[in-house]
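SEQUENCE WITH STRUCTURE:
===
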Amino acid sequence: MKKLSLKTLYTCTALALVGCTGSGAEAVESSGSEAATQQGERQSISAEDKKKGAEVHPQLVQEFGGAYTGSQVGYVVRVGQDIAVQSGLGDARSDFTVTLLNSPVNNAFAIPGGYVYLTRQLMALMNDEAEMAGVLGHEVGHVAARHSQKRQKAATRNSILGILGQIGSQVLLGDSTLGRLGSEVFGKGSQLLTLKYSRKQEYEADDLGIRYLASAGYAPQALSTMLESLAAQSAIDARAAGRDARSAPEWASTHPDPARRVSRAATNAGKLGVTSGKRNRDAFLQNLDGILYGDDPKQGVIEGNNFLHPDLKLKFAVPNGFNMQNGASAVTINGSSGQGQFTTGAYNGNMTTYIDAAFKALVGDKTSVPYGEIQRTTVNGIPASYAIGRVTSGNQQLDVTIFAYEFSKSSAFHFATIVPAGGTAVFSPMYQSVSRMSVSEAAGIKPRKIDVITVKRGDTIASLSSRMAYKDYQQDRFLVLNRLRSNSTLQAGEKVKIVTY
């Protein structure tokens, strides 16, 4: 979190394992004729698509932490352009703009106009060049099959345009954070489905990504192995956040089961009759070495249930069972009983004005969530104020809270949360956990990076796992990071990845 904006343009989990949400993706529709999806068929990217993509691109880059500037950029651009060309969406590599994002989220996506994105975090989870090409090919496949446009058409057919649709249609048609939060947690109906890729669309993008791998000379099985790593990493993230990794996730009703998707991708790769292909593991690991891993301390870091921001010198903790996702403009908090964001806004010393602006920002500038009297309090020595609003969507009532803190006469931060009516207490411990960090605490927060090392004689999974820069799940993290099993045997001379400070 580093910017002064609450609104988020676009959020998409890598390979859409949990789907995509946000108005930006829907706004950038493909306007030309049906995109080519068969190898050998080519068509130019339309001028309108290029224009739309160019307009959205800077906002997407900013929202995902900015463009990464490490030595890996040129390598990612080359591989990304090579695989994107296989889609038939453009005639030349120069038709595609590939960006490596400075984001700690496992993520990749593409939008019409030739724009392809990969986060450094997801790159670090990969183990060879073919897996990177497969991920990017999958995302380009969504564009080739015009899935974004199909989702937008479905959305416009819905009578309910958002969980807070009775307040205003701009909730989902604009880029309202609260609209997104509400649809993710409570919108189990049509508005949720239209903002996520369907099972059929995910499978279609997988198939296209596999085809692109084969046509580019890569091992088509690479997408399957990457999906396996991503599913395993998601399970670790769930356990680290205090959630049951075995429980059915909220996207299960509309998205493929990860295990089924892995086996399906492997089966379909085999059907191509291609038994080999390049993986380029050595070149990939050489380029990956040294890449930033996890949170960038300049944007704050997540340690278990704690969010720590050394530059702003503030910290807070979320309740057990909730997880956080750090973005350029806000920290998003997710759980089965509610969702929220921690962010900031312009502050001139008037907390009443600040809270009113925060409520209005949730649904757009033309209206606001109706809220009650602003209450004043103190949290760990910090002046704080809060107000609660109640809104109705269909037959459901929701409580919306703005809980704000004055850190100085010119700076304030706040939580914006949404829960079922009467459930505001679930976030009370979080509100009360906000405090200032000491200078020594802030100085103790260090960035993590990927260190590619050569296995020496006598090294074991246990000994190398102990070098991982984590206090929990060290061996699990090491195994997933290197796509190893607990009974795997390390060979002297082979390369593996560890996370160090």
